[in-house]
Amino acid sequence: MVQQVTKGIKISVDTSFEGTFYKDYKIQFAYEYEITIENQSKDTVQLFARHWVIKDALNNEIIVSGEGVVGKKPILKPGESHIYTSGCLLTSPFGAMSGYYYMTSLTTTKQFQVTIPSFKLSTPFALN
């Protein structure tokens, strides 16, 4: 598990390998990640967007940006957490993801970015 705190918002990430399958005649490696967003600040905050950089071992890069996380724009009061699970596909058995969330302090109305720490995606059978 990797963790990072930015402006009082703690991001924790746990990953797992889900399996392989073929899509469009190419092997795909499926990964799941669970993210916990914990508000350790004194302000009530809302997550309104995300930005991901997904890289695989073949140097392919995918950028994913959009509103909310899995269809939600959670509001977190001080001390509250939001947990969600999502996933991605890679064309290699190794990769990494990183990015940030766009958030708004509902107390001050200021917008800010929260760093999502870089985390590795790897298949257990490919590790030495």
From TrEMBL:
Cited PANTHER family: OS05G0170800 PROTEIN
InterPro entries recorded: ApaG-like (IPR050718), ApaG_domain (IPR007474), ApaG_sf (IPR036767)
Spans traversing the lipid bilayer: none
Source domain of life: Bacteria
Domain ApaG: 3-128
Organism of this sequence: Mangrovimonas spongiae
Gene field: apaG
Pfam families named among the record's database cross-references: DUF525 (PF04379)
The protein, known as: Co2+/Mg2+ efflux protein ApaG
